[in-house]
Amino acid sequence: MERTIISFDYAIKDILRDKANFDILSGFLTELLCKPVSVQEILESEGNPGKPDGKTNRLDLKAKIDNDEIAVFEIQYKDQIDFIGNVLFNACKAVVEQVATGNPFDIKKVYSINIAYDAMGAKKEYFFKASLTEFKGVHLDETIPFAQNLDPLSDIRRDIHPEYFLILPNKFKGEIKTKFDEWVYVLKNSSVKSDFTAAGVQAAGEKLDVLKMTPEARAKYEREKQDLMNLKTQFLTAEINAKKEGRAEREIEIAQKLLIKGMSIQDVSDATGLSIEQITEIANSL
Q: Would residue 149 count as lying in a domain?
């Protein structure tokens, strides 16, 4: 049995901000980091001015792991060319917002979790991780941890550099190998199987069940899904047109060079795929 649920990119705007639903986010982060995570509070995050309702599909939240740490939970569609730049910006922003002016740089760990429904150039993999754990000596084999210790009496150093996760649900083939794969399945299909056992996943199935939405809420949800599909279609069409224009410009450039070298109009047409009329027009413009 499989239950259809509200997509995460929609739920994150309202439903997952409710403290009663923190168990869903806690479960997701627990399986992602492979250690118990308990979401404590949602931190302030600005609305997205590009969206009519002014709500962002990015969550900053404070979670308790081994100690209090900051986790950046971010979902964004690849409908903009600055996806990776936005990942870095939001992680840095989460770090900066921890420190009040004039106070010591007591930095809590930041986890930047990003979900893209575009392939992002990936061939087969659907789950990526990036982190910087140490400084390496340029001349000698020596390292210094990227860690902080504000207590002179303690030898404990706390890793403070952000860790970045990139999840590509549409690259996931559906084979469940880990508990976190169940969550990737949910992200890809917006549905929960009854035999899933990952932390928080059945809570998601129960609390995000589409069938439990009011008619008004469901109508709004369906409209936003359609608006998003239209936006993605427009973006894809623009990308295709841009590539076509780029190829056409390249073919014209090649045709110009071949004509300058003395090649016949027919041969240039055969070489570039451009029509005789197009080559003739290019030749007349030289």
A: yes
HSE-up of 29 (CA within 13 Å, CB side)? 28
264 vs 259: CA distance, rounded Å: 7
CA gap 275, 150 in Å, rounded = 72
Give the separation between CA 138 and CA 7, rounded to whole angstroms.
47
On whether both 107 and 165 belong to a single domain, the answer is yes
- The amino acid that residue 103 corresponds to is N
Phi, psi of 41 (to 5 degrees): -160, 155
Across the chain, mean pLDDT equals 81
Q: Which amino acid is present at 200?
A: G
Say if residue 256 is in the same domain as residue 144: no
Structure tokens at 23: 């168990």
% of the chain at pLDDT higher than 90: 27
**Cα three-residue angle 197-33-127, rounded to 5 degrees:** 85
The number of distinct structural domains making up the chain is: 2
d(CA 183, CA 197): 10
Count of alpha carbons within 13 angstroms of residue 162, beta-carbon side: 21
CA distance 35 to 260: 67
- Looking at the domain assignment, is residue 217 inside a domain? no
Residues 142 and 237 in one domain: no
- 157 with 177, same domain: the answer is yes
147 vs 195: CA distance, rounded Å:
41
How long is the chain?
A: 286
* Amino acid, single-letter form, for residue 211: L
Question: Does the structure show a pLDDT above 80 at 100?
Answer: no
Distances (CA, A) of 215 to 77, 190, 203, 212: 26, 19, 22, 9
- Give the amino acid at 253: E
For residues 241 and 204, membership in a common domain is answered with: no
Q: Which amino acid appears at position 126 of this protein? A: Y
| Domain carrying residue 64 | 2-212
Give the least confident one: 14-28, 126-140, 245-259.
Answer: 245-259
